[in-house]
Amino acid sequence: MRIIVDIMSGDHAPLEMLKGAVHAAAQPYAEGVDITLVGDESVIKKLAKENDLDISRFDIRHAEEVITMHDDPMAVMKEKNNSSLAEGLKMLSRGEGDAFVSCGNTGALFCGATLIVKRVKGIQRAAIGAILPLTTPFLLMDSGASVKINEDYMHQFAIMGSAYMKALYNVESPRVGMINNGSEETKGGELQLAAYPKLAESKYINFVGNVEGNQLAVGACDVAVCDGFVGNIVLKTVEGMGKMMSAELKSIFKSGLGGALAYLCVRKALKNFKKKFDSTEHGGAPILGISKTVIKAHGSSNAKAFANAIRQAISCEKTGVVDIIAREAQRLSEEKKKVSATEE
Questions:
Q1: CA 212/CA 328 separation, integer angstroms
Q2: Which of 91, 82, 83, 81 is closest to 34 using CA atoms?
Q3: β 138-141/59-62 pair status
Q4: Are the C-beta atoms of residues 282 and 169 closer than 8 Å to each other?
Q5: Tens digit of pLDDT for each residue in 182-228?
Q6: Alpha helices by DSSP H, 26-142
Q7: Left (φ > 0), alpha (ψ -120 to 50) or beta: where does 91 sit?
Q8: Which of 312, 317, 316 is nearest to 298 (CA)?
Q9: Strand duo 138-141 + 223-225: pairing
């Protein structure tokens, strides 16, 4: 197995990405795994020397250009098609690796994955699946890629999300909920009203109905489906709440002697609590529906988060989740053909 990693993209690139790759390569889960670093070779070697990082086990593919967070998503196909992000995707497409990991521009990565690596046959739209580490972690599909979707896309999001939760989180029958402004099946806009019967009648998923925002945090479902507009708001709100809670707890424990003593009493429990709700523990977000494993790590990832994103890419390959999704897509396509033939 070979994992291709984009060293040059991200808020803390390239040093944190390089540290993350070195850390990941040293872990038991990376045994027998080869890693290719894509980026400016001279910069990579210079940073490795300055920070005493052993990169002798890595292959390096030189790519000077970098797609920034402000670049147009189509830059990956046009003016910056020789960037580290574009080069990594082209390598993946050519079979020079099994998975690709990047902290880069979300739009550019999604466009590049769709246009260069291509979608799984039968999948109409890929989606970014983000694990939200709440009381019961759940997969958010789509978490920001596609603002405008239809009920067929929503159904496929549910199928892909279920396959992912089964394969990587051993959830036997993932509960699929559709994010909505009410639990009744008559609630929602045009998309939700059209998608509800599609999801409810599907034999491919375990649909539990509409899920309101206040239910997401208390384990109402294992896969939450929605369009990318709603999904990104949910994702950013949860991230913001986590930061706010962390800041409030710190202020309480720093409020005086009583707070300091209280901290000593709950320090171990607080550490476990923080780890449980730490998004960096889950690595990045897979772009599901692409014909090969593509992981979008958070743009602000540090070395730990990037290493976990690499771990996630390895897990995706070991579980064969892309192949599982391809089989599900084929089953769905065959069923549609049978239905069409019957109607004719």
A1: 28
A2: 91
A3: unpaired
A4: no
A5: 989 999 999 999 999 999 999 999 999 999 999 998 899 999 999 99
A6: 41-50, 84-93, 106-112
A7: alpha
A8: 312
A9: parallel
